[in-house]
Amino acid sequence: MTVGRGWRLGIAALALTFGLAACQPAREDPVGAVDLPTDYAFVHDVTDLPADPDIIYGQLDNGLRYAVRANQTPPNVASVRMVFNMGSLGEADDQRGLAHFIEHMAFNGSTEVPEGEMVPLLERHGLQFGPDTNAFTGYETVGYQLDLPDAGEDALDTALFLMRQTASELLLDPDAIDRERGVVLSEERVRNTPIRRWNNALWRFRLPDTLVPDRDAIGTTEVVETAQRERFVDYYENFYTPERGMVVVVGDIDPEAVVARIEAGFADWAGIEDPRADPDIGSVSADRPISAGYFHDPELYTIFTVDAVRPHQPVLDSAATRFDNNLANIGDAILGRRFATLTSSGNSPLIQAAANRGTDFGVADRASVLAIVRPDRWEEGVTTVEQELRRALEHGFTQAELDEQIANMHTGLRDAAEQAGTRQTANLSDQIWSSWRSDQVLTTPQSMLERFEASLPQVTPEAVSATFRTRWDGVEPLLFLATSIEMEDAQSRLIETWQASAAEPVEAPEDHGALSFAYTDFGAAGVIASREEIADLGLVRLQFENGVAVTFKPTDFEDRTVRVRLDFGRGELEPRAMPAVDIIAGSVFTASGLGAHSADDLGRVLAGRNIGYSFNVGDDSFSFNTATTPGDLRIQMDLLTAFITDPGWRQEGLDQFRAVIPEIRRNSYSTPGGVMSAEVSRLIRSGDERYGLPDPEQVAGVDMAAIEAFLSPALEQAPIEVTIVGDVSEAALIEALAPTLGALPARAGSWPDYDEARTIVFPDAVADPVVLHHNGPADQARANVYWPTFDDSDPARTRAMALLNAVFDLKLTERLREREGLTYSASNAASESDVYPDYGYLYVGADVRIETVDQTYAAINELAADLASGAISEDEVLRARRPMLEQIENAMENNAAWMSWLSQSWTHPERLDRIRTIRTDYEAVTQAQLVELAATYLSPERSWRVTILPRDAE
């Protein structure tokens, strides 16, 4: 784990709650039951929707399905998937957690692959354990995934061989099961978060008469600790059957040859006779009265949901049902947009809210609104949700609202069609199996666009409103409040609040009409003063007369996609009048809108445009980082130039931040990992207040005047550097830049380095660990070791340390996870600063039980000592280096990688040479160099340790 400003992800984490609310294999849910065909291998065989013709679908005589597709993005790679259409719902009560446990055992021995050999075998092929080699278990699906950096015959044969071994040849050795129990229990501890606990409580309320509440994939501690081999075998034999399986291969391959390999490798797979059928998981009632549920967790932010749940009506995926779904999606989006308008004011009781729909486990059709609410204003939040939902149901939607959503959907579909030729291989493989699991046709982006465009005359406010109502009418609402507040009579209070609100009339929404973007003229177009080609890297560097500098790399890696980054000023190094202003500015600046448009107005003004304006206060620059299309590049640059010249400085942006920061703080202290971001990131940087989570007093002390004073000097004068990578011509790029950034008044020729702000000191080594505390479960602890190293001024040295870190990772996995079962996954990272001289560290950490903290530290120190003494084999170097070289090879044809390498290359021209040497530097590192690095830096007396324990632990 690289510890930095990770707490900022808390805002994004709150947004992800909306995905968790539906926590299920997504299925669209058109209205109207029909007589459905049942005897088919793939649904496209029996519906009017055409499947992607580039996918070869098939089914072997034993029932195994397969799908194979050629795809060249990135080139020379392939993704292999094997999935089964049953997960934790197939478990008996004494098997709870075994579907997931068996997924672990797939890496622990089969008839032809000894225990401990699968992962090293894959690493020698360039796969990294975790990112490239993984598995997953859900309620209804178990899956295995291999992302091959080399799609050659040997690698493909190895991948398919390992999938075949997993399908029916796992040993499930009792001793191996016993060794893995600690790993699974560690994963359970890591996943025991407030959100998971809330999610389980929500399912228990929504679907009380089903198996779902008692089939969380992680299972129960009792079963994981005690289940014997025969219970594993029972599940494995009954649900790992060819009839339930699907193999997917996508990549830079010969599809027909891969089909032949699948047939040769899997045709002999025969499952047991009469395997178990799908379980009866229960039912829901359409006659359930208005009901309320309450869940208390002191570390959870306040979440309110209202659901309309009815028995599931099976439907066939078809053009008609997809049209119906589009209408429903538009209705949900408009309601969500209304919530966004309310929350953007900064004074709403809602922090975030959205509408969604789902089909839950084949038993329930559900419409939902989920809202994150200010805890002290939960009743107002419930009232707001009730009234906005009822306003939509009673009065429908306006033409302006519809136009905005149609524009956004149309743009998304059009861009998807234009970019279809460079879709990522891994994403395509996952779309193929997930469409099968959801009984949907994987159509082409072009056909989706054509159907949408043909349907537009029928997409009216009346049609959208009517479809929206069908999802909510006819059943009583189910109300659920989860909060950190302890409440008496919570259920009755919740119903009373809802019903009191329902007694109040609601007015029809206003039709605000269309808005026009106010920033299209910045003066006379700028003139280019210099142009340079850097042929070996495929770059063009331009500079306008006003000083704006441009680095441009044209690529064809992503069709019709242009990545844009704009850097200016010195970011965290800039002078600030008070603590936390720099941290808060990163979240508040764009949320405050522009002079002529609020942030909410920008959503309407820019509807149908593929643009963005993500803003970041970085270690040594302020930056916008976004992606657009060639057709929208000009308005993208209009927008960024508007933020440079006329920011809004509205109070509402700060008010939104102040509303959400208590929830981020609550969430951060609910787990050991959250404390790492909130506190440790500051401690390892000499207590520097530019890092970590700001104190409540600091947040309260920052006002918009302080934020404006912090940002304005750089906005007005600092040199601007633009990096553009993607599918656009130089002429089109200049056409977009010259009348925007190029038209600005001359920028300063240089900017202060602020050397006095570049001093960060690593803490001194300590005999005993520093102890911090989290507020989560009493069985969660974390042990962390840091060794100070060096800065990033020598790229060859930095890359050697990265390789040492990769070798350390192999040893940590083998020792802490596989041999001692101390942790689900150790974290480790090498971090060298290019901003703060002489500052860097190598870090190792692990989530463990409290009673094994000392054992974990001892194991980490022993491994570090082994590295320093020369215990690094050539095989370990190969297994660490090969995945890194394969990642470099793939990155050479990846726009995001080029953007990270090229950004600020005018300010730091040495970055261009670093690109040229990246592969040779890694190839040149020797085993002796790694040993020398370890001996120099990884001694125990140099280390700084921090233990994170439960709040009440001694």
Automatic annotation (TrEMBL):
Start and end residues of each Peptidase M16 C-terminal domain: 228-408, 720-882
Keyword tags: Hydrolase, Metal-binding, Metalloprotease, Protease, Zinc
The Peptidase M16 N-terminal domain, residue ranges: 70-187
Signal peptide residues on this chain, from the entry's feature table: none
Chain segments annotated as coiled-coil in the UniProt record: none
A molecular function GO annotation: metalloendopeptidase activity
A biological process term (GO) from this entry: proteolysis
Superkingdom classification of source: Bacteria
Cofactor requirement: Zn(2+)
Membership in a protein family: Belongs to the peptidase M16 family.
Protein name, UniProt field: Zinc protease
